[in-house]
Amino acid sequence: MRTSAAPPAQFIGAFLDMLAAERGAALNTLEAYRRDLGDYVAFLTHHSTSPALAEPDHVRAYLADLNKRGMSAASAARKLSSLRQFHKFLYVEGLSSSNPTGVIDSPRKAPALPKILSMSEVDRLLAKAQEGIEDVKSPLIERLRRARMACLIELLYATGLRVSELVSLPRGAARSQEPMLMIKGKGGRERLVPISVPARKAMMTYRSLLEAMSPAHKDGLWLFPADSDSGHLTRQAFARDLKQIAINAGLSPSRISPHVLRHAFASHLLQNGADLRIVQELLGHADVSTTQIYTHVLDERLKAMVRDLHPLSERPKTKTPKRDKLSGD
Prior knowledge:
The protein has 329 residues and is mainly alpha-helical. The chain is 54% helix and 3% strand.
């Protein structure tokens, strides 16, 4: 196979024509590829080579140059994806003798930290969801809608359930007097999660309104019945209504989702002294490495402990109270 001596601009043009004709790429997509490849070809030209003659070291040098320019790993990985497709096209079309991107690893992205809500923001969500539940002058259906949302938020924040586990809770979850819920999670693994008194009260309020609205729900299968294929509330419907509550509470809907409330549950536990292994069990993570995304919370807690508890930390000294004299001291 021989390499082509055609100008790089012709390579790019042929590649974009293929994307448009065979893949139906949109104009914006084609322009993004044109920018990425134009920048890459300019780099190769500066280093006295061309796409047909590029080697893996040229691609690595280009990625290193992107890093020097301050480009994020995510953006560099996107550009590398463009280069992979471009070089594969050149190789398949016989315009180059090899594909230099085949041995290049994608730039590593730093693990994304979960969006976290403060405790006060969770309180605002709950307060907004609870408005009007006790107003007997309001239509029953409106009180029920609010009670359901308040119950969902209270339960999610109190237990850290996955949203799929939450919306599919059985009707009996609101009947049991036990302070724990048995949850069947991923892979069929079962776990016990404690349930707080406010969450249990929210369940009972919601169930009483639901049964007042429709006595038939007394014998239903689900805690959150709905007119859906599954017979219970869908994840999408809950996520949509949660964003509306966030807007009503003065919070940005882009920061709120069921998964964000699950993160808040874990983060607030760790901030208040919970052990990482306990949080792992409550979240239903099979491996503690999954839970370690929250180590940034632990890092802050450790810094605070050293600052506040170490005898040589730079903070105002307070007089240490005398210990009570106990026998054996």
